[in-house]
Amino acid sequence: MTSARPAGFNELLHFPVRLSLVSLLAPAAHADFSYLREATGLSDSALSKQLTTLQDAGYVEVRRTGRRATARLTDTGRNALNEHAHALRVLLGDALDATPTGETTAVNPA
Predict the structure, then answer these.
(1) Which of 1, 33, 84, 99 has CB atoms 3.0–4.6 Å from 10's, for a disulfide?
(2) Global pTM?
(3) How far apart are the C-alpha atoms of 59 and 57, rounded to whole Å?
(4) How many C-beta neighbours within 10 Å does residue 22 have?
């Protein structure tokens, strides 16, 4: 079995915390830092680090006004998320729609 990744698979976004963050930002015009922290369960420093990683990639824009910080998904980030989601669908293939039949099939992992 090969581990080839389909086109559009994004290692940066595949990391669960970053995928959660861009998924939270996708439907919003912007999101408060406190909302993202609560939704992900991350500490302030861990959230800041992940947002910085996404910002460095051009996927997220962070704005700070005094003590308040907000984030939004950029067009580049939205495109990367859409491409990654498509790549995951390709990678999973028919597994998403498969209904178990009760039959056992041996899989050779070699």
Answers:
(1) 84
(2) 0.80
(3) 6
(4) 22
- Pair of tokens at residue 74: 């950029």
From the list 53, 49, 21, 52, the residue with the least C-alpha distance to 35 is 21
Structure tokens of 63?
């704005």
Contact 13, 19 (CB under 8 A): yes
Find the mean pLDDT for residues 34-52: 97
Structure tokens at 94: 């028919």
Length of the chain: 110
pLDDT digits (tens, 9 = 90+) for 46-96: 999 999 999 999 999 999 999 899 999 999 999 999 999 999 999 888 676
Structure tokens at 32: 């408060």
